[in-house]
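User: Before I run my own analysis I want an independent prediction to cross-check against. Here's the chain; please return only the structure tokens and, at the end, one sentence I can use as a sanity check.
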Amino acid sequence: QPTCDGYLMYKGDDQATAKGDNAEIYTLGGRIAGTPAERWQYSAEAAYQWGRRNDATFTTSRDIAAYGANAKLTYLFKDARNNQLSLVGEYLSGDKRSSGKDEMFDVLWGRTPRISEVWAVALGQETGRNAQYNNLFRLGASWSMAPTKSTTVSATYNALFALEENPTRAAATNKLFSRDSSFRGHLLQLVVKHKFTKQLSGLLLAEYCPMGGYYTHTDDMTFLRAELTTTF
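Assistant: Structure tokens:
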């Protein structure tokens, strides 16, 4: 049987810096997840936001009307290496400048680089806050396996798009954005995790991100992180 969850959240913002907001945001959403067959898993979530928000971009507060959704479908090979293949999709609305409303989806307390370390910074150029994901549509696939009992490897590809060609919060004079394309770029990501002992584990993260025509400079972004973690 599928698992269904619903939620209603309230978030109040008081402006503390020049880039802060004054806002009252209500989010109503639901999630469903299940295993329709022996080797298949799925999940889907959607949310609607309303309320009022005023930030440094606009002189008056506006009504919020924003949407967010994501879905994931996974096939489990159930073999000796625990191979898994997943397809993912995500939709986070961006602001339509001429509508009179604020359509920017707020990820609330979820500002973590969950999609990508380097794209979390790139999207921060639009909102002034790293990992404030919105104005985003992505489609991707990932594969993971465990070559040993102590090691996991995963590889991910995502195609990233902007729902609105005008960046959500960037000033009109900002020259980083072309404003004539909706393609943000590609994301290729490799993650290797290894547990050396009960107390010591390691992680290697590599990202390669060719930028698309949404930006004026279509450079390649790269990111590499290696870390050791000790637990007591």
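Sanity check: The CA atoms of residues 30 and 65 lie 17 Å apart.
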